[in-house]
Amino acid sequence: MVAVLRPPTIPITEIEQSAFCRTDDDLSARSLEDEFDAGVRWQKLPLGYMRMKPDELDDRIAKARARLGDRVVILGHHYQRDEVIKYADFRGDSYKLSQLAASQESAESIIFCGVHFMAETADILSSPDQKVILPNLTAGCSMSDMARIDDVLDCWDDLQDVLGDESVVVPITYMNSTAAIKAMCGRNGGIVCTSSNAAATFEWALARGEKILFLPDQHLGRNTALKFGIELDKMIVWNPFKPLGGNTEQQVRDAKMVLWKGHCSVHTRFTVEQIAQAREKFPDVHVVVHPECTMEAVQAADSNGSTEYIRALVSDAPAGSVIAVGTEISMVNRLAAENPDKKVFCLDSVVCPCSTMYRIHPAYLSWVLDGLNEGVVVNQISVEDEIAEQARIALDRMLAVA
Ligand code: SF4
After folding, report:
1. Residue 352 CB–ligand 1 contact under 6 Å
2. Between the CA of residue 361 and those of 103, 255, 272, what are the distances in Å?
3. CATH architecture of the region 147-262
4. Which protein residue's CA is at the shortest distance from atom 8 of ligand 1?
5. Residue 347 beta carbon below 6 angstroms from any ligand 1 atom
6. What is the pLDDT of residues 38-47, one digit of tens each?
7. Widest CA span of the chain, in angstroms?
8. pTM metric for this prediction
């Protein structure tokens, strides 16, 4: 049995939500101590790391990384800051990174520059002797925190009570959920999905059951269900704070989709009004948004897809294209810099990074790399064996389907 290292859930406060928002695209690097001055409650590090200037950290990370060679692999999600993603051996969305985590057999350690559920998934998919490290243990995901396993199990029991054991509800959980929820799906004939493969997993689920319980992002669930022709009046939202999720028994029986009441605080900022403004300013603009955005924003956009889809759309667009993007700002800024022959901009003029992805400051990366060079593994993410086995069933179904 492996001990579970469960990080403290540090909710995003209003202060943190707005602390790193800018109106001038300037997300320049600062020392970790300076960032703590905004009033955030991240994992504390020895003072030397807290005070190190961005240049010193850059130099220190480069040297530590070189000393470790191929004993370590660094995976970086597209939403990471530039000062961190530059050290990633591989970049991707959560689907691509989960595949990569499963294929890095020679590395002793996998440093996951992303958020907690991604590191858990990497631990489940990597080999047992590999160590997965999350540089800052408080880097969670506010959407994932909206679905707690106890509430999900209560919901599952309620659905069985109303629909009877014979009725087939197939649970699908978005990658952005805890290992315990992925395990619940694994045990109950369900599957994991990402924004890259949500449609394929819906097809899989609808071939096996009459209804889908979709966790935890109601928007991805609704947007995908609409693509399958499921009408809005066949979808109910499950509020875990209300009896029967806030629904009547009849509504539960009539529903085809049960959507958990969760959302992404980054993607729900994008609005139909912002899209209209972009079109007014640039009549030829192509608007692309992430499917975690609201149904209204997705329907007003020209296209929608995962971060990998958005990245490919921008890089494949002809020179001179104007593209407005509705996703996390670190990624949009990077796409703009990498495509100087096109005009790429964020739909929202107030520039806010994902607060929890932003918690991976370079000081944390430096600290974990120095630890490995000294033979010390810090911030290892280990999923309990039984949970890992059951979650792996749901993840393997996803990898097979997609
Ligand atoms: S962008 Fe949204 S879903 Fe993704 S990690 Fe941040 S809060 Fe979670």
Report:
1. no
2. 26, 44, 33
3. 3-Layer(aba) Sandwich (3.40)
4. 141
5. no
6. 888 899 999 9
7. 63
8. 0.91
